[in-house]
């Protein structure tokens, strides 16, 4: 039986630098302890205060009492022949989330696909996570915990030149901007030198278009932004991405412009366009898309729909996919098809848990392909 009288220990894993500093001040310690402990946690993968030898014995003992470093439990871990590593992680309430680390073919990158929620409330018609409904938001510790677990599997890492995880994409389960208060601290840790030290171009948040939160994100962080557009007219997008009824395409693209203006550099928005047979894969759709994006500094990624049972949609043929790509090329857009090899095509987004072995490979190919021009 759990002892309900025991005081709750603070989990340091998901704390940003500011939060950790406030924590140390609250226990009567100096702020600089935060940087020391963060390095132990995120650089060394250490979860044991006793091993933190640059802290006094008294402080280590105190930390044992009032704090903990608790990451998700690893339920499954595997490496496939192409080097893709995958984990099924158990979070607080016994839910599972999946994290996949995909090495680039040239060996230069290792991209981690991270989940932000268990399930998703937005119910996009072509997404299996959406079909599962929403269970709950992940905490900051559970989000950064995915990066922690993946990084730890490579052992201690003083050598920042050889990082286990070089890129993160928030493209696992869930809508990250509907879990803003946990996603932002986790992303701050990804960027912090005492955390994972990733550059803002190597951390990508993908959203289906929660406009007010895009504005808020732009005020706080300037990570790379990917927009799940999938349709170039409101009628069709209302059907595929119901959130469009609240924030229509024009409103969304205006928010993208504001975001880029805040970044103040040469950044491009990534436009994700999932191609669905006979739904959005015709020439008129390519024309509309090109017209729509005329003013927006962006790159388009074409993602052939990844079928799942009872979705009611089909993946377009390879020929049709290439025709669509050619139509865009004729209109001035180089739009890579984000699938590479194999006879099946990848999807992100929560189709993994429960069918781990079968699904992760496709997922991995998708993530591998979308990161090709992320440098
Ligand atoms: N909720 C966020 C991030 C997770 S989804 C978002 O929607 O952007 C990551 C990407 O996978 C999104 O572009 C999403 O539209 C796409 N996706 C979801 N289900 C898919 C499927 N069955 N086939 C192809 N792409 C899919
Ligand atoms: Fe949610 Fe993204 Fe899936 Fe839409 S595509 S249901 S926003 S996870």
TrEMBL record:
GO terms for cellular component: cytoplasm. It comes from Halomonas organivorans. Its main location: cytoplasm. [4Fe-4S] cluster binds at residues 120, 124, 127. Gene3D superfamilies: 1.10.150.530, Aldolase class I. One of its GO terms (molecular function) is tRNA (adenine(37)-C2)-methyltransferase activity. The active site is at 98 (proton acceptor), 349 (s-methylcysteine intermediate). The gene is rlmN. Specifically methylates position 2 of adenine 2503 in 23S rRNA and position 2 of adenine 37 in tRNAs. m2A2503 modification seems to play a crucial role in the proofreading step occurring at the peptidyl transferase center and thus would serve to optimize ribosomal fidelity. Residues 106-344 form the Radical SAM core domain. Keywords: 4Fe-4S, Cytoplasm, Disulfide bond, Iron, Iron-sulfur, Metal-binding, Methyltransferase, rRNA processing, S-adenosyl-L-methionine, Transferase, tRNA processing. S-adenosyl-L-methionine binds at residues 174-175, 206, 228-230, 306. It is found in: Cytoplasm. This is Dual-specificity RNA methyltransferase RlmN. One of its GO terms (biological process) is tRNA methylation. Belongs to the radical SAM superfamily. RlmN family. Coiled coil: none annotated. It holds the Pfam family Radical_SAM. HAMAP family: RNA_methyltr_RlmN.
């Amino acid at each position: 039986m759990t002892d309900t009288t025991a005081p709750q220990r603070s989990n340091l894993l998901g704390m940003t630098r500011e939060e950790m500093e406030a924590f140390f001040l609250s226990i009567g310690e100096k702020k600089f302890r935060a940087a020391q402990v963060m390095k132990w946690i995120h650089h060394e993968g250490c979860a044991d205060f006793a091993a933190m030898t640059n802290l006094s014995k008294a402080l280590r003992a105190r930390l044992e009492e009032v704090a903990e470093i608790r990451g998700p439990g690893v339920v499954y871990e595997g490496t496939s022949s192409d080097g893709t590593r995958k984990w099924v992680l158990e979070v607080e309430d016994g839910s599972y989330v999946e994290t996949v680390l995909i090495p680039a073919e040239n060996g230069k990158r290792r991209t981690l696909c991270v989940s932000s929620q268990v399930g998703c409330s937005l119910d996009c018609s072509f997404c299996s996570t959406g079909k599962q409904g929403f269970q709950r938001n992940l905490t900051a510790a559970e989000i950064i915990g995915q990066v922690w677990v993946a990084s730890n599997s490579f052992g201690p890492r003083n050598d920042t030149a050889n990082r286990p995880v070089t890129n993160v994409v928030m493209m696992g389960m869930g809508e990250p901007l509907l879990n803003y208060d946990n996603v932002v601290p986790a992303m701050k840790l990804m960027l912090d030198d005492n955390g994972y030290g990733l550059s803002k171009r190597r951390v990508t948040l993908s959203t289906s278009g929660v406009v007010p939160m895009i504005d808020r994100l732009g005020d706080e962080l300037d990570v790379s932004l990917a927009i799940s557009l999938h349709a170039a007219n409101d009628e069709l997008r209302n059907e595929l991405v119901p959130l469009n009824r609240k924030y229509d395409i024009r409103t969304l693209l205006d928010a993208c412009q504001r975001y880029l203006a805040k970044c103040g550099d040469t950044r491009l928005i990534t436009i994700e366009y999932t191609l669905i047979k006979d739904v959005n894969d015709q020439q008129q759709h390519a024309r509309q898309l090109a017209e729509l994006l005329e003013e927006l500094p962006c790159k388009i990624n074409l993602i052939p729909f990844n079928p799942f049972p009872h979705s009611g949609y089909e993946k377009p043929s390879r020929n049709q996919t290439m025709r669509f790509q050619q139509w865009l090329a004729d209109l001035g857009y180089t739009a890579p098809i984000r699938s590479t090899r194999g006879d099946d095509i990848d999807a992100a987004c929560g189709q993994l848990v429960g069918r781990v072995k079968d699904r992760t490979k496709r997922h991995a190919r998708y993530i591998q392909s979308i990161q090709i021009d992320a440098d």
